[in-house]
User: Fold these one by one.
Assistant:
Number 1:
Amino acid sequence: MEQLDRVVARTEPGYSYARYDNPTNAALEELMTVLERGHGALACASGMAAVEMAVATALADRRKSVVAADALYGATISLLMKVLEPAGVAVRFADVCDLDALRAAVAEAKPGCILVETISNPLLRVPEIDKIAEIARQAGAALVVDNTFGTPLLVRPSSWAPTSPFTASPSTWPATATCWVASWSPTSGTSSPCAPSPASSVRCWGRLKAT
Ligand SMILES: Cc1ncc(COP(=O)(O)O)c(C=O)c1O
């Protein structure tokens, strides 16, 4: 029991309860963190759970407003319109391949989060993530990039957003194991002039791990 107490208190490594940590998820999360060069990864039961968790975490201490790509996976549109909007989150769609249109939408909506897909499903639109990351940084918004079609093997959104305070890359890769990767650690090169301290990473990460 004493050892369990230490594991639960995280003063000793180990596993206590499957939802907090388990060896199978831990192996996957470690691999995804390395691939993404991120601060950490959380395995979720589905891609949609990963997307929702990323957006909810992004909005926790930001304006409850999302500017989302107008070409998105259908279930993500449903999440925005049928879950988040009724819960009080303002949702606005913009053509994220048209940077001027995106800038105008961001200026008007002042979002806490910009949500895009690296390669959109099903329309295969490919926005310029580095430029969008800069728009997000200037607006103080988190950037959530659904990297399902890109996969962290080929595409690392966090490397295009080196100054972003919060870049999360939900991904449904590999097909048999859905997970999401969040990268906002200064140690991974994804720090921000606005939130450069490790404390910010630790705070975000703590919030995620707390659930
Ligand atoms: C771009 C994108 N995001 C999210 C999802 C949702 O993944 P899941 O079906 O594991 O919830 C999919 C599924 O195809 C997808 O293509």
Number 2:
Amino acid sequence: MNEDRFIPYAHQWIEEDDIAAVAEVLRSDWLTCGPKVAEFERSFASYVGASYAVAVSSGTAALHAAAFAAGIGPGDEVITTPLTFAATANCALYRGGIPVFADIDPRTYNIDPQSIEPRITARTRAIIPVHFAGQPCDLEAIHRLAQRHGLTVIEDAAHALGATYDGRRIGGLSDLTIFSFHPVKQITTGEGGMVTTNAQELYEKLLMFRSHGLTRDAGKWRHPSEPSPWYYEVQFLGYNYRLTDIQAALGISQLKKADRFLARRRVIVSQYNEAFADLPVIITPVEAAKAQSAWHLYVIQLAENAPDSRDKLCRHLKDSGIAANLHYIPLYRHPLYAGLSTRHQAPPGQSPDRRWLQEYPETERYYRRALTLPLFPAMTDADVSRVVEAVEKFF
Ligand SMILES: *Cc1c(COP(=O)(O)O)cnc(C)c1O
């Protein structure tokens, strides 16, 4: 491997058989929503242990569809973590709902169930836990809260394909679970996403939502007096969120490699953990009880003594040809969400930092100290050594 090659923080792994699978579809009769989409859905549902899977055009579309199926509507509140990508919160906004942020657990970086409870109101409709970096959330506590307050749980498992909680794969454990197949994620279809569920009623809503709220199923028609063979009905406002067969063929081929990719991620993580064990200034990631991470990201934190050392390390790595990154800027800090709640707003003349520190002390602490190092299955041992040496050299 070229020593000077820039090492990104994440990268897809496409092999010749993936390319052949896509080429085969291009030579076939179906380019979209044909047999490959159905096959991808079946194999995906079976892999994660869910009854149903619906393929859509992105993880963001999957979140939107799940929010629709969960019945989130105008004014409904949805509790999620601020330590996530914007799409997680936006699915509530797409439905006219309001994202409400809870604080994180300082050990797992996942949403802290104890911080969810005081934020539940009469308007709360759903909880969207995110399995941050691939580490499953405390689902037992989250399900207990959901049950007690009558809330729907939508797991954002965009990071967590292959992760297990209490010995079971993420994907069949809550009302709805969403996945993303963006190139930085465990497997890719270029763009793409999936929603899984065990409930037939939710499954049927998802299918229609993906395609204009339209049904060709005569058993569901509200105007059964229209018997013509060309008849269909649009029953609610849906979208074109379909995945193509071209993408699904890539997904089928990639899914077969998910376990191999994850095994390689685990090896790299243990190499990092071992190397950084000698550097007390670095806090390495842990797996929680009952959780086996899918290791989407390798996030370190710097022990607190030097406030700007994280940014200096980030710059040093960039100068060494290594992409370090920050996942994520807490969502409440972005202008879009800062305007949504008084929780995010400081009294006149006061900087909002103090308000944020009061509301989200653990997220703020994390935000000052965290850094994501490169982690992807196609990384070579030499790549890993280069990252480790660059970090060691800095300290
Ligand atoms: C990637 C990601 C999404 C969105 O997925 P896309 O396929 O990029 O639309 C949603 N949530 C989280 C946590 C993600 O990392």
